Amino acid sequence: MPRWEGPLKKRDDYRWEIPQSYKPGMLVPGLIYSSEALLEETKEEQALEQVANVAFLPGIVSYSMAMPDIHWGYGFPIGGVAAMRARDGVISPGGVGYDINCGVRLLTTSLSREEVQPKIEELVNRLYSDIPSGLGTSGRIRVDKRELDKVLLHGARWAVEKGYGWAEDLEATEESGAMKGADPDRVSARAKDRGLPQIGTLGSGNHFLEVGVLEEVYDPAAARAMGIERVGQVLLLIHSGSRGLGHQVCDDYLKVMEEAARRYGIQLPDRQLACAPFSSPEGQSYFAAMASAANYAWANRQAMAHWARESFSQVFKRSPQELGMRMVYDVAHNIAKVEEHRVDGQKLTLVVHRKGATRAFPPGHPDVPARYQKVGQPVLIPGDMGRYSFVAVGTEQGMKEAFGSTCHGAGRLQSRAAAKRSLRGHDVAQELARRGITVKTGSWSGLAEEFSSAYKDVAQVVEVAHNAGLSRKVAKARPIGVVKG
Asked: What is the pLDDT of residues 76-95, one digit of tens each?
């Protein structure tokens, strides 16, 4: 892929603009949140061209935005944020991605590193055994199609009512774990067949469970509100999505949207941006199917959290309650949502696409759980399984400027094939062990694809988001045990 050589106007140390004049047809400028160093890495591929292409989409307002972890994706860049007017704008599956509601869930424990370290291998093996992982893996929950429709409607609530979790988990989940507007009838039979056996499974690719140790606290008040209380405290992070069901929903609707774009006369610079007016039958149908897949993902992470609590309980011979395994939060980072925002002083109803970007609402926002009203919505930013992960909170600045959005992770530097080539002959597991990380996986080649060198340094990414005011750093954890999907 050639290096991107388009125009960029520096607005300050963390904001760079692609002028609207760059390509005829852009309806808004592009806005890139980045440091100079990260930007040089980003220019090595064509993700910035994708930012410019997204600016063509009908109804887009403000800017076509990119978070500091931007990299090349299908149609939209990963790390992209774009908001379209609901009344006359479009919705695009490429703006959500194949893994609908891929997201992150964080749990606290009352355990210290000193308690967990001697048992880390046993704990990682237990997590690997209790939570199925890998491509196409089946899970422990069996449902028929009628019951699956309830999952698609009720999401994490379905799982909690079946005994997989605690009622208080729902309060700490974006959308309380179930997005409104879901309609299982808009999900294909093929997608449902793929989803039937996979509730409660980790999947493959960059999905993982991470047992981490709190290393640094930047905002003690916000950390306390989350139950993150002392350096050395052990945390558990779960990163997964909607599995084969979500992938199939995206695949199904890309075909629908290609035809719809032609029918509605929408001119696109890239066919991967296939879309339809949000208010059209095709747009409404995709939104209902996407919300169903999002709810599936929340049920999926809810079930995994339940078994993770059981795994800890088995290893440490105490109940999950005694181990303090409360949920901090669960946040989506591949989703399109209908939200109200002010643009140029006017209140608008928008379809906000966040693809590889995290919602980050500020203190006082009505969609922020009661326990976080004073500090803002928690933002969970996993790293690359080999360095560190971060917790942050949403800010007023991010709300005003980026529709309440921030980064979602480290952001890839290398393709999976390139990562494997660069590590040929290296023992990745041994390298992780040298860093004090115990890892368990069913795919050692998959582990190489996701090794730290394939990613940007998440600390640099989070620093840009913090300094730009999109989100505020709260804490940093370092992994000691990983189950890689």
From this structure: 999 999 999 999 999 999 99
Average pLDDT value over all residues in the chain:
95
Q: Quote the pLDDT of residue 41.
A: 93
d(CA 287, CA 337): 9
- What are the residues whose beta carbons fall under 8 Å from the beta carbon of 104, sequence distance 6 or more? 237, 238, 239, 330, 331, 333, 380, 381, 382, 408
Q: Write the single-letter amino acid at 391.
A: V
| Beta carbons of 110 and 323 less than 8 angstroms apart | yes
Point out the catalytic residue in the list 333, 408, 426, 466: 408
Mind listing the pLDDT tens digit for each residue in 377-425?
999 999 888 899 999 999 999 999 999 999 999 888 877 777 777 766 6
Q: Let me know if 179 is exposed, middle or buried by CB neighbors in 10 A (0-12, 13-18, 19+).
A: buried
Reduced to 3 states (helix: H, G, I; strand: E, B; else coil), residue 373 is coil
Query: What is the per-residue pLDDT across 181-207, written as a single tens digit (0 to 9) for each?
Result: 999 999 999 999 999 999 999 998 889
220 CB-near residues (< 8 Å, 6+ apart): none
| Residue 441 or 330, more confident | 330
pLDDT over 90 at 242, yes or no = yes
Q: Tokens 């988001």: give the residue.
A: 465
pLDDT over 70 at 368, yes or no: yes
Give the sign of the dihedral formed by CA 254, CA 259, CA 265, CA 271: positive
Which of 355, 304, 308 shows the shortest CA–CA distance to 332? 355
Is residue 408 part of the annotated active site? The answer reads yes
Cβ atoms of 391 and 228 within 8 Å: the answer is yes
Listing DSSP states for 223-238 in one string gives: HHHTT--STTEEEEEE
Provide the pLDDT confidence category of residue 432 given band limits of 50, 70 and 90.
confident
31's tokens = 């806005």
- For 56, how many CA atoms within 13 A lie in the half-sphere containing its CB? 21
- With H, G, I as helix, E, B as strand and everything else as coil, classify residue 339: strand
- Give the pair of three-digit tokens for residue 131: 């939570």
Q: Is the pTM of this model over 0.90?
A: yes
Say how many C-beta atoms besides its own lie within 10 A of residue 297's C-beta.
28
Look up residue 6 and give its two tokens.
């388009």
Give 334's Cβ-side CA count (13 Å radius).
32
Q: What gap in Å lies between CA 195 and CA 252, rounded to an integer?
A: 14
φ/ψ region of 391 (left if φ > 0, alpha if ψ in -120 to 50, else beta) reads beta
Q: How far apart are CA 290 and CA 280, in angstroms?
A: 15
